[in-house]
Amino acid sequence: MVLMNWELIGHEWAVNLLSRHIASDQVRHAYLITGPDGVGKRTLAMRFAQAVNCTDSKNAGDFCGQCRACQFIQRKQFPDLHLVEAEDVGGILKVEQIRELQHQLALSPYEGKKRVALLLRFHEANDNAANALLKTLEEPAPKVIMLLTAQSKETLLPTIPSRCEILQLRDVSRDQIEEALVERGEGHEKAALLARLAAGRPGWAFRYASNPELLDERTEHLEDLINLLKTDRLERFKHVERLTRDWERERKRGGEHPRLRALGALEHWVSLWRDAMMLAYDATAEQRNIDRTQDIQVLVRALPPEQISEILGKFEQSKRDLQKNANVRLVMETLMLDLPRISEG
To answer: How many domains does the chain have?
Structure first.
């Protein structure tokens, strides 16, 4: 059984490249896969691990999906697959994790053809962890493949990408994502909305399709934004206080880190504000939030294009600050100072 394009949505060029490396026995000792969250970095890495270790593929560079190695890698239970990541998304990958990995990689493969180390979100590694990994990258053990994922090579110490083959994943077309969603059972209207909101990230689209509460959360975030624009700074600060307190309470009950909750809200705000900027400047880019046309028009009528562009920059800066582990409440309060106030009408 041959699985077309390794069951990925898009990224045909990356699949073809990695497949050729396997087929010609030219697999590199380390690959760095970059791209935005949800674009398919982790899935590509897992499929590569399957293709490398598959025992029943009819064509070199493919994988069957049915043999023991393929199934156990898919379930993350394969003894020669080593997943390393920060404890939480947005957390810190620590040097102790790298040292433990190095101990495991020093051993010969237990069952597979190769030991595969998958280091997810390596932009979350602290400097000590990154420096510790350098030795392994510089002196790779035989029968070991290192797969690193990160948002971009610029988020890493320069010495890391210089020792890897880099695969920079690009946005997947809206039509491909929409078609894939329909094939998986989504209605055409919902698939069209999710494909636009995904902004080229099939993983994002599938996650939101599988978790309807995420769309409800998006609606809440966007309504919060429009309401905040109509209130004074005191009310905005009270809102941030309530929000961060609720996030902390949910975190203690096992929920997401408040930083991730804030980043989720900012992602939705950036998307809406980007649509407003496109409309304000008569740009040809397609509208993503096709269900929020009225909100977008309110922003364009109320604010000059230059201010819309400036505020979009403030949103993006807030995201970067949070990704650098800045204090969540402080970042959100600073943003409240920057937001303009629009009339109720």
So the answer is: 3
